[in-house]
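Weekly structure sync, notes
Attendees: PL (lead), two postdocs, one rotation student
Agenda item 3: pending single-chain targets
PL asked that the sequence for the first pending target be pasted directly into the notes so everyone works from the same version. It is reproduced below exactly as submitted, 406 residues in total.
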Amino acid sequence: MTEPIPQPAGPGDRPPPARFAYDAHTWKEIAHLLTNLPVSMVGFVYTVTVLSTGVGLTVTVIGLPLLALGLMGARQLGRFERARARSALGVRVDEPSPLPWRGGFWPGLWQAVKDPVGWRTFLFTLIRMPWGVLTFTVTLTGLFVLWPVLAYVVRAMTDVDRAMVRGLLSPSDELERRIAELESDRGIVVDTAAADLRRIERDLHDGAQARLVNLAMGLGLAKEKLLEDPDAAASMVEEAHGEVKLALQELRDLARGIHPAVLTDRGLDAALSSVATRCTVPVTVTVDLDERPAPAIEGIAYFTVSELLQNVSKHSRARSASVEVWRLENRLFLQVRDDGVGGAGLDGGTGMRGLADRLGAVDGLFVVDSPEGGPTTVTAELPWRDRSGTPAGEAPGKRVSARGRR
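Predicted structure, written out during the meeting:
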């Protein structure tokens, strides 16, 4: 299982404006400022001790390991400060991705020593020491001297605290966020692949395998009766011939569920047209592509449309549906519409969540617009990659809106 990726801080993270009245938010801020001093002292002493000991002993064999351990401990200090700011100041800051430890002891040790998260936490604790003294003094004095305007003074000082937490204790940059997303996506891909393997195993066991076992038994009985009762043996062989046809059809259906041959040979236009013929309502397919994307992207696009059309057949009670596929800059767009009863959603039990997860694992998007009473429009967006699998010059993190095509 992977932990959900925390969302970036937004406007709703800030408490309401300071007022003369001392509400719960103001008292939380006062408590935060009063505890700044003892917490800052602990962090300052820890940082000075680690730096003086670790850096001072770098000429010996134990210096770097001590410094690495100290930086790992600094990560825990940063975690505590983020939790403290989240509780008292309403600041939600993403947790940095875990420290990688690859390639054995010494490469892992060097990664720990270079850890930017730990070093920025050290900087945070050093800056917070004089700031903690100042905020403690001003707040404690203000409780007796500056009471009428203390709420505004407290808000100004906690805003500085918020800025320091966001600036020094947030993930290093977009790369940190991307690493966390990729770790989550990797778990989704592994889970999806395992589920697909279990489905294939179940289909083989319950379908083609059982039919082939019956076929072998039937042919064995026919062999025994071949000399005694040729007519009965011929009837058994005829029945076995029908079983063979059914087994072959089941195997073809299973292979189509893995990767249809028509998709490999002729591309999305022909493959989606084939899927549309199996839908219980009339489907119009429009594919506007001047070239083919990578096989992996084609496969995801095919199975996405296939499952959406299955939902149309089973749940929508629609009279007609349409499929549109087009390319816009470096993104591949799919849009499936139907004039059914609507009410579809990511939590509706129709496989939508699985589709959204599968697209998210390859940096795609999945949007469902399905009001009660219909119609339903599902738009999927995938990265465009050429047949070699490269992103075709796409800038990292770039997104193109799907709202222009209606």
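Discussion points:
- The CA atoms of residues 273 and 285 lie 6 Å apart.
- The radius of gyration is 31 Å.
Action: rotation student to compare against the earlier draft before next sync.
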